[in-house]
Amino acid sequence: MKKTILSLAAAAAVMSFGTVAAEAKVKACWIYVGPIGDFGYSYQHHQGLLEAKAKFGDELETAYLESVPEGADAERAIERFARSGCNIIFATSFGYMDPLNKVAGKFPDVKFEHATGYKREHPNVATYNSKFHEGRYVQGVIAAKESKAGVAGYIASFPIPEVVMGINAFMLGAQSVNPDFKVKVVWANTWFDAGKEADAAKALIDQGVDIITQHTDSTAPMQVATERGIKAFGQASDMIKFGPTTQLTSIVDDWGPYYIERIQEVIDGTWKQSDVWGGMKEGHVVMAPYANMSDETKKLAEETEAKIKSGAFNPFTGPVTKQDGTEWLKAGEVAQDSVLLGLNFYVKGVDDKLPQ
Amino acid sequence: MLEGILLTIATAATPLLIAAVGELVVERSGVLNLGVEGMMVMGAVTGFGVALATGSPWLGVLAAIIVGALFSLLFGFLTLTLVTNQVATGLALTLLGLGLAGMLGESFVGLPGVKMIYIYIPGLTDLPLVGKLFFGQDPLFYVSILLTAGVAYFLFKTRAGLTLRSVGDNHASAHALGIKVIGIRYMAVMFGGACAGLAGAYLSLVYTPQWNENMTAGRGWIALALVVFASWRPWRVLAGAYLFGAVSIGQLHAQALGIGVPSQLLSSLPYLATVVVLVLISRNRRLTMVNTPASLGRPFVPDR
Fold first, then answer.
1. Which chain A residues are Cβ-neighbours of B248 within 8 angstroms?
2. What beta strand segments (E) does A138-269 contain?
């Protein structure tokens, strides 16, 4: 029932999109998995849209669809955009991968950009992503330094490579400080449900974690952590307002520069298929100010961030052992991007069985 | 830990209970309003906004109740006076509510809200295990229990309740007896709207004191299912809401304990439990027939 309603909602949203500029040179369209008011992942993508709009002014016409469910509904939404004269379409969630590639085959003149995916089945499909795991490694370092219980709670969304990568990076960061550090993982099986995320946070805290981190999009876990007097990390945007005494830092996604670059390329006619995976170095991943931690932790966090930013250090550097005890990376070996983007196993120390 | 789990379950169950009890009264009067989700989200945005502006969560709650009732009046006017299709109108109400609330709440995004103060009775609240559970929750938790008791009493122990049920069971006969079918249905619909508004305010003022678009996240639909689940009996709605809450919270704890059962399966447990109970209930056809409002969803046009 809910699914039907969501698709109806999506259809209704389709009817009402967009402002029409008089002499736009290019039309760019965005599809978000959550509402732009989530103050998390979709909100940050929308900030990217607004940045692009501010940059190009009347030259750019924009449209967006929010809360588009992943799967069959997404295909309709993407096709609708392709038909309605969008020159470039940014589909911003992993689950849009197959529908997007399917539609892209039918509209060779439209450029399709897919965030966080890995399939590029047609020359007009590009993929882009941010190395959020770089930020999660820094969070792991902070968590291990600041936690007294020695165990952190991790609220995860869906078991896709992106999320698994984040959990592993967090674990490795924590282990670099405290080899016995534990992470408890709870899968919410949603990207956005404030109530459920709050419940997950409460469950984790009741089981003794004293730091919460999340890979879901609402600010609810931050509020629960504040209420219970423990520390937490924000997600996607700076959530300090929801936990002035709680937030240690937050990984802030900055998509604006990438969107502006790609739209400019469409205007110039130089757009090409690509697979961009920017991190701290490219400015796609920014850490919110470090707060609510000891000076010593702060210093270590800043050093770790600087090391990653300069390219001197990759979070996935061996020796790393898989959860089942077999060796993944030899000492000094760095994981290949292709392996990371299809990651489907945990590193040693994660207290969870990965759903397959 | 047990106390923590029970408190979390109560918080998860309360909004479902409030919305479902409201919808139960609506359906007992023979009207099917699928707009619960829309009325709930309107209540959530109103409650948040008013509480933020005035600093008083109670004014927020009051405003949410009023807005919920007014919003349902739109549904009432369309389905009862203009005799539109109830299913389609209810769906439209949900879509309208979600969109309108998103628009009204645009400026609230990213603002921490006002949280309702929890009850504290010196001595009683500090009792081990049961203290917080019975004497230390948010005020709306107690409202939800009283509401259930009140509706149960009203429906089955008062003349007015009997009249309302007769309208839901056979509107033609009720009309012939001189009962104002449309008037009663209007009142029932508004009561349902007020409850849904209150449930929404619970989300944005107690559960997660913040405003996000679509923050109801399908809870209105769960409430609708609970009414059927409970075969239109108030105390069973309470049992259903708490069962659903318990399974939802229990699976999160099971995951955090790392018991190694796939999380997708665990996440679907609340829904599976609902399906199983529905199947068990529907096996007893006689009982189902007795409790189902016979005129549910059927339009009524008085032939003067």
1. 196, 199
2. 151-156, 182-187, 211-214, 231-236, 247-253
In a domain, B148, yes or no: yes
Per-residue b or e along A295-321, where b marks 16 or more CB atoms closer than 10 Å to that residue's CB:
eebbebbeebbebbbeeeebbbeeebe
What radius of gyration, in Å, describes the C-alpha atoms of chain B? 20
Q: What is the domain range of residue A175?
A: 132-253+285-351
**Token pair listed for A182:** 């534990």
B118-126, long-range: CB within 8 Å, 24+ apart, which pairs? none
Residues A289-311: tens digit of each pLDDT? 999 999 999 999 999 999 999 98
Give burial (CB, 10 Å; 0-12/13-18/19+) of A37. Answer: buried
Task: Say whether residue B256 is in contact with chain A using an 8 A CB cutoff.
Answer: yes
Predicted TM-score (pTM) of the model is 0.86
Q: Could you tell me if B66 and B197 are in contact, meaning their C-beta atoms sit under 8 angstroms apart?
A: yes
| A103 shares a domain with A50 | yes
State the CATH number of the domain containing residue B284: 1.10.3470
B102 touches chain A (CB under 8 A): yes
* Nearest Cα to Cα of residue A309 among A137, A129, A165: A137
CATH number reported for the structural domain that contains residue A18 in this entry? 3.40.50.2300
Task: Enter the ipTM.
Answer: 0.88
Of B108, B120, B158, B118, give the one whose Cα is nearest residue B140.
Answer: B118
Say whether B112 sits in a helix, a strand or coil. Answer: strand
Q: Calculate the CA B243 to chain-centre distance.
A: 15
Residue from A3, A7, A163, A206 whose CB has the most chain B CBs within 10 Å, to mutate: A206
Q: Is residue A258 part of a domain?
A: no
Quick: pLDDT tens for A184-207: 999 998 888 999 999 999 999 999
d(CA A67, CA A34): 4
User: Whole domain around residue B64: which residue ranges?
Assistant: 2-108+124-291
The last residue of a domain, from among A130, A161, A191: A130
Q: Do A198 and B219 make contact, defined as CB atoms within 8 angstroms? A: no
A66 close to B (CB below 8 A): yes
